[in-house]
Specification:
Elements: E1 4-7, H1 13-22, H2 24-31, H3 38-43, E2 56-62, E3 66-74, E4 81-88, H4 98-109, E5 115-119, H5 124-133, E6 136-138, E7 141-145
Parallel strand pairs: 4-5
Antiparallel strand pairs: 1-2, 2-3, 3-4, 5-7, 6-7
């Protein structure tokens, strides 16, 4: 399967809300409550300390429809780094390699990123995914070192 990552548009909001509802297991583990209609709008304003609005990317993973969503801040906490707020895949599509494909697409879209940071929560399947992807889990954070690309891009 080949997926693409594209920027979120206002027309995506109903699909993203449906994805959020489908991922209530993650929302419950990460926030202690189910997702709600204001969660999409609040994403635009949710920035880690020290990050600028221009660094924020809300991305839709698409392959014959929406199959995932990424909340990403590039260049944070340092140049060449990226912070992932969350990375969602619908329940019925988990463990099909979509998360791995989304990660591959992220490295293609942002080749300057060599280190990825993720805040950990109590969502065991997500933490297992991070471990399988090679992230090093350390307390409340997980970090992945990405080798610089050798093709000059």
């Amino acid at each position: 399967m080949r997926l693409t990552l594209r920027d979120f548009t206002p027309a995506d909001e109903p699909g993203v809300l449906a994805l959020f509802a489908d991922c209530d297991d993650w929302f419950q583990a990460a926030t202690g409550h189910p997702s709600g209609p204001g969660d999409v709008q609040s994403l635009f304003y949710a920035l880690p300390e020290g990050a600028a609005f221009e660094q924020k990317h809300l991305l839709v993973a698409q392959a014959q429809g929406m199959i995932g969503f990424v909340d990403l801040v590039v260049g944070h906490p340092a140049p060449g780094h990226a912070s992932i707020g969350f990375f969602l895949v619908p329940k019925d599509l988990r463990r099909w390699g979509i998360g791995r494909e989304m990660a591959r697409a992220l490295t293609e879209r942002f080749p300057e990123v060599t280190r990825v940071h993720v805040r950990l929560d109590d969502f065991k399947p997500g933490n297992e995914f991070l471990k399988a992807m090679g992230f090093v889990l350390n307390g409340q954070r997980a970090v992945l070192e990405i080798a610089p690309r050798s093709d000059g891009r």
